[in-house]
Specification:
The protein is of the alpha+beta class. It has helices at residues 29-37, 44-55, 59-75, and strands at residues 5-10, 13-18, 23-27. Strands 1-2-3 form a three-stranded antiparallel sheet. Helix 1 crosses helix 2 (44-55) and helix 2 (44-55) crosses helix 3.
């Protein structure tokens, strides 16, 4: 589940403003796609599958970077209860 954050677009990147932690995070287009897939209903495996579908790559190719991004978002406190 995502913690409340304000999302803004900056060119092709996204900026997340964490209002609770008072921090800002710049996400590249791939990380932003991962963030958008984190809707609270999808598991980490489903986020990987969604990313692989979006970019038309095998899940095995998408998984390492996707899982690392999920771990980063969780460590930043932007994902709550993530099972990475």
């Amino acid at each position: 589940m995502r913690r409340p954050a304000v999302e803004r677009r900056l060119g092709g990147d996204g900026v997340l403003l964490d209002m609770v932690g008072r921090a800002a995070y710049v996400l590249n287009p791939t990380a932003l796609a991962i963030w958008e897939l984190c809707d609270g209903a999808r598991s980490a495996d489903e986020v990987v599958a969604g990313l692989a579908t979006r970019y038309r790559v095998p899940e095995a190719t998408a998984a390492p970077g996707c899982l690392a991004t999920l771990a980063f978002l969780e460590a930043a406190g932007l994902l709550v209860g993530a099972e990475v």
